[in-house]
Amino acid sequence: MAKKIVVLTGSPRKKGNSIAMTEAFIAAAQKKGHQITRFDTAQMQINGCRACDTCFSQGKACSFDDDFNKIAPEIEAADVVVFTMPVYWYTMPAQIKAPIDKLYSLVVGQRDIAGKQCALIACCEEDDMSVLDGVLMPYQKSIALLKWTSIGEVLIPGVLAVGDIDKTDGCQQAAALADRI
Ligand SMILES: Cc1cc2nc3c(=O)[nH]c(=O)nc-3n(C[C@H](O)[C@H](O)[C@H](O)COP(=O)(O)O)c2cc1C
Q1: pTM of whole model > 0.90?
Q2: Does domain 4-180 fall into CATH 3.40.50.360?
Q3: Whose CA is nearest to atom 5 of ligand 1?
């Protein structure tokens, strides 16, 4: 059955390693008939959560004029949410951390978002797999709180420059995620 998939990318590199994996996933998912809505968070204006706790009180997720308000309704409607990013300083980039922080609005607003599927696609320069724990742990804890189920995590170490991902099986692993939806 065709599903609605929201993809949030976190890299500012439009042809970078995590975007290459993202696009491999999207192509595979579209081939299976799924509907993709992609947000490149590094190209959007999304500020950090101000913890004003007024989420949804003015008819929109975030009370401020913020591009997260374009993402929130799509996440609410989605069957699957896919997060893709590089590691920055042993954690996730600020660009995607901001919209992830603003998922708080869906909790504060008591929106009905439990039961979704999700996935993580991430990469880093260092060869040490534990570097990817900095994105894996917040992903796992956050989706447990949201009552979402992970269909898989593609974690690729050892890629630095644009194109390095082609020396790994990262894009094949990302494409294979589409088989689990
Ligand atoms: C600001 C910044 C911080 C980074 N921090 C780390 C890090 O802590 N550990 C690491 O292994 N790689 C780090 N990297 C390297 C990236 O994770 C790596 O180049 C990755 O392949 C970039 O993915 P992208 O092409 O999708 O942007 C950092 C890169 C930048 C620009």
Answers
A1: yes
A2: yes
A3: 88
